[in-house]
Amino acid sequence: MKLTLRLWRQRSARDTGRFEQYQVADISPDMSFLEMLDSLNEQLCAERKEPVAFDHDCREGICGMCSLVINGLAHGSDRGVAACQLHMRRFKDGDMITIEPWRAKAFPIIKDLVVDRSAFDRIIQAGGYVSVDTGDAPEANTVPVPKPAAETAMDAAACIGCGACVAACPNASAMLFVAAKVSHLAKLPQGQEERRRRVRSMVEAMDREGFGNCTNHFECMAACPKSIHVTFIARLNREYLKASTRRSSEDIH
Amino acid sequence: MTPLMKTLDSMVPSGPLPQKWERHRLTLKPVAPADRRTYRVIVVGTGLAGASAAATLAESGFSVECFCYQDSARRAHSIAAQGGINAAKNYPKDGDSVERLFADTIKGGDFRSREANVYRLAEVSNAIIDQCVAQGVPFAREYDGYLANRSFGGAKVSRTFYCRGQTGQQLLLGAYQSLMRQVHAGQAAVHARAEMLDLIVVDGRAQGIIVRDLVSGAVTPHAADAVILATGGYSTLFYLSTNAKGCNVTATYRAYKRGAYFANPCLTQIHPTCIPPHGGGQSKLTLMSESLRNDGRVWVPTQPRDMRPPRDIPQAERDYFLERKYPSYGNLAPRDISSRSAKEVCDAGHGVGPGGLGVYLDLSDAIARLGKPVIRERYGNLFQMYEQITGENAYDSPMRIYPAPHYTMGGLWVDYNLMSTIPGLFVIGEANFSDHGANRLGASALMQGLADGYFIVPFTVADYLAGVSPGHGRADARHSALAGVRRSCVADAPEFAEAAGGVEARVKRLLGVRGKKSADAFHRELGRLMWDACGMSRSAEGLTRALARIPALREEFWDDVNVPGEERDFNQALEHAGRVADFLEFAELVCRDALHREESCGGHFRVEHQTPDGEAKRDDERFCYVAAWEHQGEGKPPLLHKEPLVFEHIPLAQRSYK
C-alpha cells in the first residue's frame, strides 16, 4: 500500500506546531499501525530528517503508552483496542491518514505526538489506593468477595490509563479514568474504609489538573481501548454525592 | 585460554532449609525508625519488583527515589504478563504445599538455581496473595466468593491466581498504587521518562547513578546510600521478542562494567505460545498466555506441508505432539520443552501458516465441552488480541502459535540477600539471575518480582544500611527533596562528575557518527544473528561464528550508525541507539557463556548435548554451577567465577515430563 500521512509536528511545548505531509510506500496489511510509523521514521532517518516522536512500548495494547488520534478518533476506528493493536488491513491503498496527539489542556504536548500525562499519576496519588502496608494483610480468603462484585471491579480495573477518554471528550474530561479507579475500589470490601475520602480527593485532584466534566457525550467509552462503560461515571457521581453529603468518622480526622 | 576462576560465596545461611529465611531475618539488623528518613535509596525500574520494593521501603520510612524510562511508573512491562501468579495456598486441596512449589520450581529450572533462594520464594508466595488481595487486586473468584485457581505448565496442581488475562497489569497497579500513596505521603519520588546510563561506585560501594532526562536530554548524577536495580530482562537482544520495545540491558550492563558480575547470561527463555511473525517491518511478537494450554491442544498435520484448512484435517491426520511425547504433562509440559518440540515439528516440515512457522493451538474441544461463554470469560481478551493481530477468529479455527524470546533467567549475580558483587547494589526481579535456573515456569515471574520487592529486599537493604552511615538522605531532608519536584543531588566525589562526563561523551559520540544506517537496522541484524546462533538451539560452531561476527558488527555500528536529532532534546532515536550499542557488547558475553556451557539445560540447548530422544542432556559433573562473569576492561575477555550449586533436598535427576 501507498499512503499519505498528515502528521502533527511540534518541536516542543513552546512551539506552535503544524501538520506536515509524508508519503509512505510498501506498507503491508499485516503491519501494525505503529510499524507503519516505524517505516516512516526509517525513511526520514535515511533522508537525514528528524523522525516523528510518538509514545509506544508494549505494543500489545496493555501498557497504555501509545496515544494517537487517527483520523479524528483516539486510538483509531477499531472499537476496544489501543492504537498499537490497530493493523493496516483497516486501510486502503492511497488513503490519506491524519495523525494527531491527545489534545487537552491537562496533557501538554512534549514533542510531535508525545504528551505529558503525569496529571493521571497525581490523581492516583490523591487517593487511588487501599492504604495497607506490606505485611499487614490478613489471609487472602478471610473475606470472600461475591463473584459479581469481583467481576464488576475487574471491569473497571481494566483501565490502562492511556488518556484516550480525555482525548475523545469534547470537555477533555477525565471522569471515565477517575470513575474506573473509584468504582474498582468501591466495589471491593477492601476499599470500603477509605471509600468516601478517596472519591472526594480524586475528584478534587481531577479538577485541580484542569480536566473538564462529563456532559454525557459518551465519546470516552467509544474510544476506550478496554471498553470501560460509562455507567461507571454514573457510579462515580453517586459515590461523590454520597461522600459529599454524609459525614463519616473519616471526616473527623 | 583458561580463565582464572574464583569461587563465589552466596551467603546462604546455615540451618535446615525450611528455617533458613526465618532465622536469617532475625539476624538482619533493622535501622531505627527515626534514622530511616536520613537514608536515601534509589530504585531503578518500576515494574513489579521495583514498585513493590520502593513502596515497601518508603512505607517503613526510608527516603526513596524511583526512576523509569516510561512516562509513568504504571507502564513497566510487568503490566503485560497475562496468565497469573503462583502461590502454594492449596485452596483447591489438590495437595499443593511450599515443598511442592519449591520442588516444581527447582525441577522446572533444570537444576540450575539455588535451593535456598527457591525455597524462600515458595515460602513467601502465600503472603504475596494476601498482600495483593488486601490492596484490592481483583483476582478471579469462584461463585462462593473465594479465590479461583488455574493450572500452568510444569505443575500437576492448580496454584495459579489470575485476573482474567491481565494478571500482571492488576498486580502492577496494586504495587504502583502503593507507591503513589508513598509519593503522596512525601516518602517517595518518581522520576518518569528518565533513563539510568551509569552506576556510581565510590569507595567500593554503589552510591548513585547517572540519569539522562529523556525529555530535556539533561544528564545528572543522583546520589544514594543504596541502589536497587529492578530493570527487567534483556529479551530484546533478539530484536523480535514479546518484551516491550523499550526493554533493554543498559542498566544491568552498565553495572556489570562497573564491577557487578553477570550470571548465566545465556539462559534465556523462548516462550512456546506466541503469535507467529508476519514478515517485513515486524517490530515485536505478541504472547498468547500459556494459560490457554489449560484448555487448548497443540497439534500439527501428520503430513508435511499440508495446506488444508485445519477444520478439514481429520483427527487421524493430526499429531498432538505434546500429548504424544509427554503423556503425563501433555499440553502443560514446561516452556523449554514445548518450544523445542514445536521447533522440531516445524523443522520437519509440519509447520502451518506462512513460512511453515507455526503450530495449532486448538480450543475447539474445550469450546464444545464448556461453551463459548465460559471460554470467553477465561480468555476473551486473548482471543480479541489474536483476532486484532492476525485478522482470524480463533473461536472458529485454531490459533497458530510459534515460540518467541520472552524472559531471561540470566541476570546480575546476587547473593542470598539479593546484593550483587558491588556492596550496596541490590538486584531484584528479572534483572537478577537467582530463582529460575535454566528455565522459568509459567506464573513464576510475577511471584519472584513481588517476593523480592515486598518481602525480601526491604529487609536485606535495611540490614545493609544499618552498617553504613547515611550520606545522602540527610542532605535531602534539609532541602525537602521529596516534594515531588525533579532535582538532583550532586555529590562531591569526583566519581560522579567523571561518570556524568562519560555518559555525555558517549551521547555526543553516538550523534557524531552521522553514518547511513539506523540503530534499528543494526538491532535487527544483531537480533537475527543472536536468534540463529543463540536461540532455541545452539552449537559450538554457530556460537564461534557469532563471536567472530559481533565485534565486526559493533565496529560497523560505530562507523556507520545514523542517529538523527539533538543531544538536549526528546530524542527517541538516540535512546534506542544507546541501548543497541550496549546490546552489541552484551551479545558477546551471552555467546561466550553459551559456548562455555558444554551441556544442555532448560532453555540452553546445545545440539552436541542431547539424549537419544532429543531431550536436553545436562552435565552435572562439569556444569552444576552458576557462571558469573566479571568485566576485565575494554577489549579483554571477562573472567569466569563459579558458584557451585548443591542440591541437598531435591536430588539431581534427569527431568522427565513423560
Give an overview in words.
The complex is a heterodimer of chains A (253) and B (658). Chain A is of the alpha+beta class and 253 residues long. Chain A has 2 domains: 3-111, Roll (Ubiquitin-like (UB roll)); 118-252, Alpha-helical ferredoxin (Fumarate Reductase Iron-sulfur Protein, Chain B, domain 2, Orthogonal Bundle), CATH 1.10.1060.10. Chain A has helices spanning 33-46, 118-125, 147-157, 164-168, 175-186, 195-208, 219-223, 231-245, 249-252, and strands at residues 3-9, 18-24, 69-70, 73-74, 96-100, 109-111, 114-115. The termini of chain A are far apart. With 658 residues, chain B is an alpha/beta fold. Chain B has 3 domains: 38-268 and 407-492, 3-Layer(bba) Sandwich (FAD/NAD(P)-binding domain); 271-403, Alpha-Beta Complex (Flavocytochrome C3, Chain A, domain 1); 499-631, Methane Monooxygenase Hydroxylase, Chain G, domain 1. Chain B is 37% helix and 14% strand. Chain B contains 19 helices and 20 strands. Chain B has helices spanning 20-27, 33-36, 48-59, 98-108, 115-135, 167-184, 250-257, 292-295, 321-325, 335-347, 364-370, 372-390, 445-466, 473-479, 494-512, 519-534, 540-560, 572-596, 620-623; strands at 6-7, 40-44, 63-67, 85-86, 160-161, 188-191, 194-202, 205-213, 219-223, 226-229, 262-263, 268-274, 297-301, 318-319, 359-362, 399-408, 411-412, 425-427, 625-630, 639-644. In chain B, α11 runs antiparallel to α12 and α16 packs parallel to α18. Chain B is globular, with a radius of gyration of 24 Å. The two termini of chain B are 41 Å apart. Mean pLDDT of chain B is 93; it is low at 473-490.
Topology overview:
The complex is a heterodimer of chains A (253) and B (658).
Chain A lengths: L2 E7 L8 E7 L8 H14 L22 E2 L2 E2 L21 E5 L8 E3 L2 E2 L2 H8 L21 H11 L6 H5 L6 H12 L8 H14 L10 H5 L7 H15 L3 H4 L1
Parallel strand pairs in A: 1-5
Antiparallel strand pairs in A: 1-2, 3-4, 3-5, 6-7
Helix pairs in contact in A: 2-6, 3-5, 5-6, 5-8, 6-8
Chain B lengths: L5 E2 L12 H8 L5 H4 L3 E5 L3 H12 L3 E5 L17 E2 L11 H11 L6 H21 L24 E2 L5 H18 L3 E4 L2 E9 L2 E9 L5 E5 L2 E4 L20 H8 L4 E2 L4 E7 L17 H4 L1 E5 L16 E2 L1 H5 L9 H13 L11 E4 L1 H7 L1 H19 L8 E10 L2 E2 L12 E3 L17 H22 L6 H7 L14 H19 L6 H16 L5 H21 L11 H25 L23 H4 L1 E6 L8 E6 L14
Parallel strand pairs in B: 1-20, 2-3, 2-10, 3-6, 10-18
Antiparallel strand pairs in B: 4-5, 7-8, 8-9, 11-17, 11-19, 12-16, 13-14, 13-15, 15-16, 19-20
